[in-house]
């Protein structure tokens, strides 16, 4: 019966089956959706018919019948040849699968090995039959590509291996030279790439097949570009990898350099090239001399060339190198001897050279348009490129001392004979020399200089007598570089030589001076052309630039010398002049001095501070302070504006700030009063300059304040007293004005550091504590007056002074709480709030936002100073101000208000915390005038719960449970996406951040709320609100991860939510009518737009939720098993997905299905085969069963990936 089916299939359906399997005309979208599954099914059915057990056991090989009768060059289209590798692969797989039925079973290891040998023999026979069939179709591209695929299948099947010499012999009979013959002819790139891939695969299968042909392969690859043919580099990698593992690097190097030496006179090259310049360019940029291959050669020589092989390998390389130089030298001398009137052809010159030296290669008597000298120059240049790589890479450290001495002597002897003459050939060329001869001499000189540079870079060979400018005739180097006829590679090598010579300390100092003088000139970030300034800017951003030790030392020396004018100035004297506002000063810097200082500190600002020695840091820190003061005095005493003076001070302050954590200003200016007066000198100039100046100054002040506070803890309180006195003076009434930004920011930072560093006043002694109390008394008196003046104004303006006054007044309350002062104090928060609301109705709210934020922070701080019986009234004021300022009037910044609220919530008493939460619940239950206000209440509840005080667990539990009951109202779960998202954010934060506050009574309402958000709706938003889906997924995921004990009792609810999440990912088909589209849209949530459904990112979120119950993850985390219990409910969830696939009205996008795949595989794992069979029988129709089978097949394919 099976033979009848096979015969019928081959006669009737095989041609159509082959055409369908090879089809590529279907649209990509179709192939991604249904086409791939259908094509796979049809292919598998055909294979099952062709290679059934009965057909494999028959006397006639089914593959031979198939190849001989159905793949005939005159009848079979070449587009169907790609099915041959697929059939061969299936044949090998089916033979292995049914090996015991086909070859018999064995009960001993020897019989098993016999079966494995029969499998290999059958596989190799099938391979040869398939290969011969393909070769009968000629040399078209389709044939080559099919041969590549066939060999890749052979490699993947691992048929050719150890103990299979007969199979190797079969492969050696392949016409490999036919593939190599295509290498030098890249006229058909795709065919050439296929030939290279064939050689790559053969090198993997059995290297001995192509090892005897190594020289021919190198000859073919020499002009092939690895960028155009990636397989060329892969082939070279395989060849070098084999020789590295077998420790035969000398043989590889010898073959490589021998090929390069004879390349210019080979038949292939002579036939193809007529110009030496093009020949040299193609060879130099080819695969053999490409950067990637040469780097691999260098690593192989360093790591795999043994100490015993090194002398012999070097000797062989030097012999070929000397031969290439002798060849060029003989041709050069012969050309110089020719009379000007004598016309000697290139062939005659070659013959003359051959008579002089019998070891010269024979050149065929054919018409060669290139001269012998040019060919010899190309040969020398190619060999020199390898020599420049190999010699510095030799493993000198592993050689014994006698071997190392002999090796150095050999290299020196060979090199000294070539060095001087080869380097001078280009400089000694006669003016009447032809262009080709001049080019030949230049590439010889460039190659020689390249070797010089390589040897000079190698520590073990640096002491050799390498090339220097003294060898080159004086003045000719610069002329050669400027000459239009000089080749680019010679120019590069000449510049390399000059750079090596000028790397003396004197020249490095000159270079450092250039960097300093040019570094601060203005230039665009993206110039239209390259410039020194732009190059210097890019270099200074590179770590490699600062890793150069000699250049770095030269730069530091130059910087030290350029800032010497700030060394001899008395800093204390300058500070006194500023403190007493003295007008009699002799300090006055010229414009050049200011520009030089700007260059110094701009370069220091770019330099990583770790590269600056510790002693230099201290020196430059003091000079920066002196320069800042000197420039300030110069600006204020000069009648003419000092150009870039303000910007230079900004640069200095920025550098001082960047290094202030290792060097403090108080180490240079011991008196804090002088320090505060100096640092709080106001800046002027452009707005961006002033902004950076103020930020850097505040950072400097912060480090100084922290050092003073920490010293006061250790009873070194003199500085604390002086600092408090200075701060008190700096913000006095007569000092306040438009330029009080720095003093006030300094005061605020001091209070913040004091409160954070010293939690209790018991850590301070009486003297510094008294100084702080004096500062508070002065602040309270001055600011009370300022606040009364502020309230006396008719309305708030957008002036920054009002905001500054409220900010400092709030800091006064912080200081009062820290000191524990019980005296009464005026509370202006409520009055300010009332006035702000009035002003906000008349002005632009954006201009009052900062002031509104400070007033809200003041209200929070005033809570700690009101009487206990007034706490509830004040808390109600805080809550109402939060809602008004953020939702209704938009007069405050939400992020800043939340930050202040979190700090205040941690210090609330349990009574106050309970009252605030009850107030919020009451507002939610009664409802407010707008959803925006409800959103603010929910957000406020979220902030309070996230920073609940200690001992408030029960209170937060009750508040959360009552809020869940309130959120069941329709207003919170339908219609307003922002409000619903805020509700979900609140629930998610509790589930993820405070899971201990969740009880079993809370889990049911959570599932109910999520289900309501996912239920269908007749109305939909214009745009899909994907954050809602992400919030639902993360909320359910947090419950599953952190409260599995509670989730186990509500698994049906979890399954229902998962079903709804999968349903929310569906998309109505585009060709539906209005009624059909409405039927689908009514099943989608209200926040999903049918025109813009959720995408792959949302599908990935659902997949992560599904994988949270994965068995392996639970085992790794040691969590309570949930996958087993959920397996009873996984079927309906899987049914929702399969139902969506089979629904004629909806579609799941391929990208969505791909994103869901990990979660679906986790569901399959939980269901098991029993759950799958139950779902197939009772819950799916015919289309659903087909879809589930396909999904299950994909699940089983990936199940054991990566498990050995």
Automatic annotation (TrEMBL):
Domain of life of the source: Eukaryota
Record-linked InterPro entries: Urb2/Npa2_C
A Pfam family assignment: Urb2
Protein name: Nucleolar 27S pre-rRNA processing Urb2/Npa2 C-terminal domain-containing protein
Species annotation: Phellinidium pouzarii
Domain Nucleolar 27S pre-rRNA processing Urb2/Npa2 C-terminal residue range list: 982-1203
């Amino acid at each position: 019966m099976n033979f009848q089916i096979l015969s019928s299939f081959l006669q009737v359906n095989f041609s159509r089956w082959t055409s369908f399997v090879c089809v590529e005309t279907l649209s990509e979208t179709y192939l991604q959706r249904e086409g791939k599954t259908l094509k796979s099914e049809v292919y598998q059915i055909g294979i099952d018919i062709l290679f059934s057990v009965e057909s494999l056991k028959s006397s006639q090989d089914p593959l031979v019948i198939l190849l001989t009768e159905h793949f005939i060059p005159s009848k079979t289209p070449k587009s169907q040849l790609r099915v041959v590798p697929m059939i061969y692969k299936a044949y090998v797989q089916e033979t292995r699968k049914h090996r015991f039925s086909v070859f018999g079973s064995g009960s001993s290891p020897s019989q098993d090995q016999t079966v494995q040998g029969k499998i290999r023999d059958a596989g190799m026979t099938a391979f040869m039959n398939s290969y011969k069939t393909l070769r009968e179709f000629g040399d078209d591209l389709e044939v080559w590509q099919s041969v590549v695929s066939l060999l890749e299948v052979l490699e993947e099947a691992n048929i050719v291996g150890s103990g299979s010499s007969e199979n190797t012999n079969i492969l050696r009979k392949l016409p490999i030279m036919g593939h190599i013959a295509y290498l030098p002819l890249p006229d058909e790139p795709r065919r050439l790439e296929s030939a290279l891939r064939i050689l790559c695969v053969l090198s993997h299968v059995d290297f001995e097949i192509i090892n005897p042909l190594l020289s021919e392969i190198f000859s073919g690859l020499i002009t092939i570009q690895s960028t155009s043919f990636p397989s060329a580099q892969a082939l070279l990698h395989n060849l070098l990898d084999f020789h590295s593992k077998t420790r035969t690097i000398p043989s590889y190097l010898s073959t490589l350099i021998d090929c390069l030496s004879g390349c210019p006179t080979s038949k292939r090259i002579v036939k193809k090239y007529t110009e030496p310049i093009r020949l040299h360019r193609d060879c130099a940029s080819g695969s053999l001399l490409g950067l990637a291959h040469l780097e691999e050669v260098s690593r192989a020589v360093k790591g795999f060339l043994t100490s015993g092989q090194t002398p012999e390998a070097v000797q062989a390389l030097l012999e070929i190198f000397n031969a290439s130089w002798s060849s060029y030298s003989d041709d050069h001398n012969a050309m110089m001897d020719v009379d000007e009137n004598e016309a000697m052809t290139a062939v005659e010159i070659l013959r003359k050279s051959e008579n002089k030296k019998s070891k010269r290669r024979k050149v065929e008597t054919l018409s060669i348009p290139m001269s012998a000298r040019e060919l010899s120059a190309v040969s020398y240049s190619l060999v020199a490129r390898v020599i420049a790589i190999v010699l510095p890479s030799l493993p000198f450290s592993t050689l014994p001392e006698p071997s190392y001495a002999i090796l150095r002597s050999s290299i020196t002897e060979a090199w000294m004979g070539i060095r001087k003459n080869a380097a001078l050939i280009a400089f000694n060329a006669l003016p009447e020399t032809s262009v080709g001869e001049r080019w030949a001499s230049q590439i010889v000189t460039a190659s020689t200089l390249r070797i010089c540079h390589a040897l000079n870079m190698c520590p073990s060979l640096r002491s050799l007598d390498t090339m220097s400018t003294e060898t080159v005739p004086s003045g000719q180097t610069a002329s050669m570089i400027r000459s239009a006829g000089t080749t680019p590679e010679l120019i590069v090598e000449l510049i390399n030589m000059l750079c090596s010579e000028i790397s003396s300390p004197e020249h490095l100092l000159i270079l450092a001076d250039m960097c300093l003088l040019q570094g601060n000139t203005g230039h665009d970030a993206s110039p239209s052309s390259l410039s020194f300034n732009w190059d210097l800017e890019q270099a200074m951003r590179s770590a490699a630039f600062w890793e150069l030790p000699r250049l770095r030392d030269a730069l530091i020396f130059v910087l030290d010398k350029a800032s010497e004018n700030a060394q001899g100035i008395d800093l204390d004297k300058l500070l006194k002049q500023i403190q007493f506002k003295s007008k009699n000063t002799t300090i006055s810097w010229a414009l050049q001095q200011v520009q030089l200082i700007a260059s110094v500190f701009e370069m220091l600002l770019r330099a990583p501070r770790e590269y600056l020695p510790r002693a230099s840091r201290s020196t430059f820190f003091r000079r920066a302070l002196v320069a800042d003061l000197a420039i300030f005095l110069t600006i204020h005493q000069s009648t003419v504006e000092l150009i870039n003076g303000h910007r230079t001070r900004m640069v200095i302050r920025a550098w001082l700030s960047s290094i202030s954590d290792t060097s403090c200003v108080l180490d240079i200016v011991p008196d804090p009063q002088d320090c505060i007066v100096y640092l709080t000198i106001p800046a002027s100039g452009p707005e961006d300059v002033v902004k950076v100046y103020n930020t850097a100054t505040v950072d400097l002040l912060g480090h100084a304040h922290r050092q003073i506070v920490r010293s006061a803890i250790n009873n070194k309180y003199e500085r604390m007293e002086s600092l408090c006195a200075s701060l008190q003076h700096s913000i006095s009434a007569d000092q306040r004005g438009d330029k009080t930004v720095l003093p006030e920011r300094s005061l605020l930072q001091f209070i913040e550091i004091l409160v954070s560093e010293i939690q209790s006043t018991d850590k301070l002694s009486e003297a510094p504590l008294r100084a702080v109390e004096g500062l508070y008394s002065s602040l309270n008196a001055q600011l009370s007056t300022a606040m009364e003046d502020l309230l006396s104004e008719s309305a708030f303006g957008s002036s920054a002074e009002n905001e500054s006054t409220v900010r400092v007044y709030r800091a006064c309350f912080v200081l009062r709480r820290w000191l524990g002062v019980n005296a009464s104090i005026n509370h202006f928060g409520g009055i300010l709030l009332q006035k702000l609301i009035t002003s906000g109705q008349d002005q632009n709210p954006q201009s009052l936002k900062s002031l509104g934020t400070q007033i809200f922070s003041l209200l929070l701080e005033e809570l700690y100073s009101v009487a206990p019986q007034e706490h509830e009234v004040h808390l109600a004021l805080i809550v109402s101000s939060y809602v008004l300022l953020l939702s209704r009037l938009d007069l405050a910044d939400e992020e800043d208000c939340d930050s202040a609220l979190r700090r205040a919530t941690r210090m609330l008493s349990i009574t106050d915390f309970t009252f605030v939460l009850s107030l919020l619940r009451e507002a939610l239950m009664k409802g407010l005038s707008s959803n925006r206000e409800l959103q603010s209440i929910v957000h406020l509840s979220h902030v309070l719960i996230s920073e609940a005080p200690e001992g408030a667990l029960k209170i937060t539990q009750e508040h959360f449970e009552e809020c869940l009951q309130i959120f069941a109202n329709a207003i919170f779960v339908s219609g307003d996406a922002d409000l619903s998202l805020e509700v979900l954010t609140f629930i998610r934060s509790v589930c993820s951040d405070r899971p201990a506050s969740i009880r079993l009574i809370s889990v049911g309402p959570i599932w109910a709320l999520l289900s309501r958000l996912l239920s269908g709706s007749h109305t939909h938003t214009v745009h899909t609100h994907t954050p809602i889906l992400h919030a639902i997924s993360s909320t359910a995921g947090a419950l599953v991860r952190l409260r599995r004990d509670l989730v186990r009792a509500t698994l049906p609810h979890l399954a229902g939510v998962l079903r709804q999440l999968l349903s929310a990912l569906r998309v109505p088909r585009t060709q539906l009518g209005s009624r059909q589209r409405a039927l689908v849209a009514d099943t989608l949530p209200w926040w999903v737009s049918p025109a813009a459904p959720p995408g792959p990112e949302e599908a990935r979120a659902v997949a992560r939720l599904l994988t949270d119950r994965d068995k392996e993850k639970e085992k790794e985390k040691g969590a309570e098993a949930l996958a087993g219990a959920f397996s009873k409910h996984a079927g309906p969830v899987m049914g929702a997905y399969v139902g969506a696939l089979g629904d004629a009205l909806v579609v799941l996008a391929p990208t969505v299905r791909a994103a869901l795949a990990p979660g679906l595989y986790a569901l399959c794992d939980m269901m098991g085969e029993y759950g799958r069979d139950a779902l197939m029988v009772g819950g799916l129709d015919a289309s659903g069963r087909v879809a589930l089978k396909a999904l299950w097949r994909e699940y089983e394919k990936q199940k054991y990936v990566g498990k050995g």
